[in-house]
Amino acid sequence: MARLSNYLLTLLGTFVFTQGTQAYDYLSHARSSSDALMHWYNQGTGVFNGTGWWNSAECITALADMQGIDPTSNFQDTLRNTLEINKNVMTTKSDFYDDEGWWALAWIKAYDLTHDQDYLNTAEQLFDDMAKGWSIDCKGGIWWDKDHTYLNSIANELFLSVAAHLASRTRNIKYLDWAIKEWQWFEQSGLISKNNTVNDGLDGSCRNNGYTVWSYNQGVIVGGLVELSKASFDDSYIVIARDIAWAAIETLTDSNGVLHDSCERGCGGDVSQFKGIFNRNVAQLYTATSDPGLKKFLETNAQSIWKNDRDSQNRLGLKWSGPYDKADASTHSSALMALIAAASVQGS
Question: What domain of life is recorded for the organism (predicted)?
């Protein structure tokens, strides 16, 4: 019914949110930008030119999200092509467990869209490989990498999220057990600061290293806790997720409410992916809470992207407050996630 409602709104040219004289049809904007993302897709490799392996998982996730809210979009051939080309290297392509987590969530999203068991099976295989990284050095948690050099937030947040997502879809108790075990460790690890922001990782003494509060570290744990709440029928996880989300919004937005990482340009190729991950997970939290402040945050960022951070071909850049500079598959898919997030809560 929600899909039909969005479709009819689009056909009628109805805009449900206005600011001054500017109208925002988030679904239409997201649709145009989803099509633009395919500019970077490589049919032969199944990934996106000009960006990394894990970033391509986020591009795939964005396309699946888009089709999930828009009946006129169809990226199923793209999803299938990427799986067929890469499924035999999913657990060996990278030496990093977080890369496996991104792909596992992408394939779970594809499964939700298509109900094709191949996608879910692939996600389970990736999770099983991630579980091999469980550490005893800091009384738990999974390593970031297969060389066991760093215990960080993102790998563990993804491990929690994948486990919780699989628990909801397979009803296999082992996934729920892993998700709860991971959260119990994460909550006590010191990774969450006193003001509810999440730092990057632990030092050699198993203490919070005080490294950067990146937007994606706030987002993934929020989404993971929302999913764990569903799988466990425990609303207390939603309360924690909400605290973390609002701490991040208060810490990482400018005076206009637009999201920024503390370092955006010249900080390495991964940072350009981060902000959209936060917005995607905030949209999931909004669905669970109907918090109007979260909806306003999502709309504010989508509006700024469309107004200030795109070119004439609807390619989206790095700095959501503008001005537009240039785009690649990473900056574009990240900003696209913010447009999709706003579209997904439109009219709710």
Answer: Eukaryota
Beta-bridged to residue 23, according to DSSP, are 18
Is there a domain that residue 347 lies in?
A: yes
User: Which helix H or strand E contains 19, and what residues bound it?
Assistant: strand 17-19
* 2, 17 Cβ separation under 8 angstroms: no
Q: How many domains does the chain have?
A: 1
Tell me, yes or no, whether 20 lies in a domain: yes
Contacts of 96 (CB under 8 A, 6+ apart): 54, 144, 145, 146, 155
CA-CA distance, 46 to 93, in Å (whole number)?
Answer: 13
- 204 is written with which tokens? 């050699």
Q: Which two tokens stand for residue 14?
A: 């109805």
Q: Which amino acid is at 313?
A: Q
- Tokens read off for 302: 């989508």
Tell me the residue type at 172.
N
Taking the model in full, what pTM does it have?
0.93
Q: Which helix (H) or strand (E) holds 18?
A: strand 17-19
Q: Note whether residue 292 is domain-resident.
A: yes
3-state helix, strand, coil in the chain (%, to 5): 60, 5, 35
Q: Cis omega (within 30 of 0) on the bond before 71?
A: no
3-class state of residue 205 by DSSP:
coil
Cβ proximity of 300 and 314 under 8 Å:
no
Structural domain boundaries enclosing 330: 1-40+253-348
Let me know if residue 207 belongs to a domain.
Answer: no
**333 backbone dihedrals φ, ψ, rounded to 5°:** -65, -35
Give the tens place of pLDDT for each residue, 72-118.
999 999 999 999 999 999 999 999 999 999 999 999 999 999 999 99
